[in-house]
Design brief:
Blueprint: H1 3-29, E1 40-45, E2 63-68, E3 77-79, E4 86-89, E5 93-98, E6 115-117, E7 122-124, E8 130-132, E9 136-142, E10 154-155, E11 170-172, E12 176-179, E13 185-194, E14 200-209, E15 214-219, E16 222-231, E17 237-240, E18 250-255, E19 262-268, E20 276-278, E21 284-289, E22 291-292, E23 300-305, E24 310-315, E25 320-325, E26 328-329, E27 338-340, E28 344-346, E29 367-370, E30 372-374, H2 380-414
Parallel strand pairs: 11-19, 12-20, 13-21
Antiparallel strand pairs: 1-2, 3-30, 4-29, 5-6, 5-9, 5-26, 6-28, 7-8, 9-10, 9-25, 11-22, 13-14, 14-15, 15-16, 16-17, 18-19, 23-24, 24-25, 27-28
Helix pairs in contact: 1-2
Length: 416
């Protein structure tokens, strides 16, 4: 190899060490960046003229430096004061989008490019969107007003959620359906019951006197769903069905049908606090109203995220309801992703196609820690040590250049 060749080799060494220095600087600068994945530098000798190879002796006269990503390295999960912060422990990535330059303060427009990130430092903006500190908007599956989950991945927006009445499981009768000593009496008790989607249904029971103190209660929509109710002379409840019950026992009727099977609470044996007969004598038909255990009103107060990725709307009545679901995406080779600004990535041919967004804790996607963040994977001690090594290597390459220069000067002096 010529002296000039030595200079060229040393210059390639300087470039390679500068490349390594850049990687280390980036790692150190991002040592506090949420979700940042530290990189390393790989060196490889480079043969610029393999025609010089003879007798199995190779000649390498250059070096190349490349940056290696380590997106599959797990960062330390640390607690955050942000209750909407999320940290992934596993191989998954959040699905996110960016707003385009055409966005306004009230209506962000998304550019359609799919990004992936481990930066889970999310919060709600003024429009109800969840976005992280790098202004990437979190995507998920959102429910409609009836609680039905969408199958389309889209930026999650939650604001002013209407409360859906809770599903009715018990209806309670606490009124007189007739009178003691009456004849030919009938009565109807009605209620508004709600199904699992919060949809209202009118429900009624029909009461028919079959003896002096004996009645039959039935589902008005299905008279075959019935039972016998017997009262004491004072109008208090004596027995439901054909089984004798002790005073103070709870009495009920199994309602079967629309909107779902429910329990009808009839009170307690020996008491007039539930269904009863009033004093006096009467005949004919009466109507009364049942109450249900459904909660029908609530004012939206905010959101909370659960460890399974469920986004819950919270209400001032103490209840919460599912409004969105956060999925995670995995890659066969996450180290092949293309890095973008703000700790985000795009898929490449090297990374492989993204998996279909999957539920948290499935297919290796990992678990979620709520109120936590994934720290940078930068190892400051190791990087600062390597910085010294790179500095020495850079200096050694400059020494080659200065030495080659001296040799050239000596050669030139020979012909003077």
């Amino acid at each position: 190899m010529s002296i000039i060749g030595s200079v060229q080799t040393a210059v390639s060494g300087l470039n390679a060490q500068s490349h390594a220095f850049s990687d280390l600087s980036n790692n150190i600068a991002n040592s506090q960046t949420v979700g940042y994945k530290a990189t390393t530098t790989s060196f490889a000798d480079y043969v610029t003229n393999n025609s010089l190879v003879q007798d199995g002796q190779s000649m390498s006269d250059s070096v190349l430096a490349t940056t290696r990503q380590h997106n599959d390295n797990q960062g330390t999960v640390t607690a955050s004061t942000n209750t909407l912060a999320l940290a992934i422990s596993g191989n998954g990535f959040f699905n996110v989008q960016q707003a385009s330059g055409n966005s306004t303060g009230t209506a962000p427009v998304f550019n359609g490019q799919q990004y992936y990130t481990r930066n889970g430092d999310f919060s709600q903006d003024a429009n109800g969107y969840l976005k992280n500190t790098s202004n990437y908007y979190l995507e998920g599956y959102q429910t409609d007003s009836s609680g039905k989950m969408s199958t389309t991945l889209a930026p999650i927006q939650i604001q002013n959620v209407a409360f859906r009445p809770t599903q009715t499981t018990t209806m309670t009768v606490s009124s007189a359906i007739g009178s003691v000593g009456g004849t030919g009496q009938t009565s109807t008790t009605t209620a508004t019951a709600y199904d699992s989607q919060g949809v209202a249904h009118d429900v009624s029971l029909t009461w028919t006197q079959t003896g002096t103190d004996t009645w039959t209660v039935s589902n008005t929509a299905d008279p075959t769903n019935n039972t016998t109710v017997t009262f004491n002379d004072d109008g208090s409840l004596k027995q439901v069905g054909n089984t004798t019950q002790a005073t103070g026992a709870t009495a009920s009727f199994a309602f079967l049908g629309t909107p779902q099977n429910m329990t009808v609470s009839l009170g307690t044996i020996g008491s007039t606090s539930g269904v009863s007969l009033s004093s006096g004598t009467s005949s004919g038909a009466t109507t009364s109203t049942m109450t249900t255990d459904s909660t029908t009103t609530g004012t939206y107060s905010g959101i909370a995220i659960q460890s399974d990725g469920s986004v819950m709307a919270t209400f001032d009545n103490g209840l919460s309801q599912l409004v969105a679901k956060i999925p995670l995406t995995t890659f066969s080779n996450p180290n092949g992703l293309a890095a973008q600004d703000g700790q985000a990535y795009t898929a490449t041919a090297i990374s492989g196609s993204p998996s279909a967004p999957t539920a948290v804790n499935t297919n290796g996607a990992g678990t979620l820690d709520v109120g936590s963040l994934e720290s940078s994977t930068t190892d400051l001690t190791s990087n600062l040590t390597q910085l010294i090594v790179d500095q020495q290597a850079y200096g050694a390459n400059t020494k080659v250049v200065t030495t080659a220069n001296q040799m050239l000067q000596t050669t030139l002096a020979m012909i003077q």
